[in-house]
Each structure stands twice: as structure tokens, then as C-alpha cells.
Amino acid sequence: MRRARSLNAASQGRGEWTIRKTLTLSDVDISHPFLTLPRQPVENYILVHLTQLERDQLSNREQVTVSTRDDDTGENYVMKLKWCGSYYNLIGKWGKLVRAKGLDAGREIRLRWVNGCLHFSVPLLQVAAEAPVQMIAPPILREHWPIRKVLSLSDVDTSHSFLPLARRTVEDHILIHWTQQQRELLRNEEQVDVNALDVDSGDMYAMKLIWRGNYYNLIGKWGKIIRRKGIGVGEEIRICWCNGCLNFSVPYERNVLLLPGQEQWPIKKALTLSDVDTNHPFLTLPGKAVEDHILYYWTLQARDQLRVERQLNVNARDDDTGDLYLMKLKWRGSYYNLIGKWGQIIRGKRLQVGREIMVRWDNGCLVFSVPES
Asked: Is the pTM for the entire model greater than 0.70?
């Protein structure tokens, strides 16, 4: 470890910035001030200089104090580094820095580790012209879909038709391409018109985006899109911003095919007392079985989100009745809990200790069955 540390320090001259990042809207939001840094560069160029105790603290999701220096002003700060699963957050005095340096989305921050201190710089040259944020489009072929979401029951409800999208993904991948005036309209909780292109069919829709706290809602023609495309629970919608337009796609779902000899219900469990307790309703499922037969079919993004947030919405279907439920899968380390509507299911199916529940993943939905004894 000492040799690796010395090699990194030797290769990292004072003129070399080992980590560079374009600031996003969430990075400069002073209401929730933190700087998000990608995991691999932090581990390659920062954590290698920390002690084993500090690295263990980060692994346990504890905050580690680091000394930082603003190379532009020469000011020193005591800040904290926090591991959030697939990325790291720099917190503490970040809100003060955003205000003092007048940071805005689109500017580049550069970081390096020198002599036991995290140095950073945000060159002033990038804001001298005070030009509006440019509309930088993703590749025309749209091979990259930065926003992906598995549709839930509420997403495909045509009686109250809107598509909620997580705040951070919208700000990082859509609003970053907007003008300052458009972003301020959203901050004032006003609707902003957007053109939306259905990449699958070529149809164009005039829609609206509205801010709702931790989410942004896409409204307008969403109900029409649901009916026209026949979108159902469990399907995945993919979104990107391209050429001044919101592009979306809902690929046709492929069935989970069973191989010869493969069990139709790969997860089976005899219900325990805790599984049928309506006072604290949750179904416990073994960790390896869930990872082998449920998470295996999830996108990498969904699996990472589950690890970071510890729980994630899932669509569940009772194979015995056909009823659909919006539930949550919660990660507990060596096992998983299915929560949300489980108490309702216990009462409705009159579940008792010893009865067998069978579970599988099928077309973006967790399917379960409790055969009659």
C-alpha cells in the first residue's frame, strides 16, 4: 500500500489535476449543498492517501474529515467526505463555497491530492463571458439513455396522467441544457413547455414539465401516449435530451424465458410468524435467491439505486388473483424485505404460518403465489 501511495504521489505533479468534473444543478443547489464526485477517480486519487481506518469508516458509510484548499484564493476549509454507494459526496462548507465563488451549472471543477490536503480550483475564465448554458445534445444515435425508469401503476393511470421523474436525474441530464430563464420558471413552480419525441414511432408531442419538490412531472399528452403505445406496468421508459427536445423510448419487453429444466418458481419459502404479522407487515426473502432470480433481471442502474437508497419501488402481481400492487423491496444486507401492501395481502389471502409462498420475476414485475393447502 505504501508503494502504491508513493507512486500515485510521484505521478501527481502540482500542475496535474487528476479529477475534473462539470458542475451539475444538484452540485450548485445551496438548499442541499454537496459536491458529487464519481467513485472510481476518488478511490484512485484520494482514498489511496487516506489511512486504513479512514477508508474503513467510509466503507461503513461514516463521514471522514478532510482538509481542503481553494487554489484560486488560497483559503483552507475543513470538510467531510461521504460514501454514497456508487459515488462520493463532499460536504460541510460546500454551500459557502458555491455562494462565495458564484458557482453555476456547466463550470468545471478540478481536484487533486497534495501533501495531505484536497486541492480544488474552478477557473474564472469559464464565466468571464457570462454566456448562457449551451444546448449540448447527446449523440444523435441515442445510444445513451441517462434516464431510465420502470413504470409503476400510478405512471400508467390514464385518469390522472403524469410521469414523475426523479429530481436529480432531470437536473443533471435535462435542465443542464436549458437557459437560466427556463430553469427559474421551474423554480417558481411554473410549467415549462417542452417538445417530446417518441423515438419508437417518430411522433412529436407538445408537453409540459413542472417541478414538484423531489420530482418533476411530465404532463400534457402523457395519457394519450399511454393509450397509443399500450404502455403497461413493469415496462421501462428511457429518456434523453437531444437537439432541444425531450426524446423517449419504451422498448418492447421480452419475456423471461425458462430454460429446459428451469424451475418456474425459483424462490419458495414456508411462511414464518414474522411473515404473517399484520402489526409489522413484511415478507422476508433470502438474499442470494433474490439476487439470483430477481435482481439478475434488473438494470445496473436499478441495482445501484437499491444499494444506495436501501429500498426501491417494485410492481407486484398476485398470480392467484391477478391483483396488482405497488410495493417496495428493501435491502437488509443478507436478506430482503417486501413491504408496502404486504399487510393487505396477508389479510386478503388469510395467510398463516407454514403455508408456502412462491416468487419469480416476470416482465418487470415481482409475481407471487400462495397455493391453497
From this structure: no
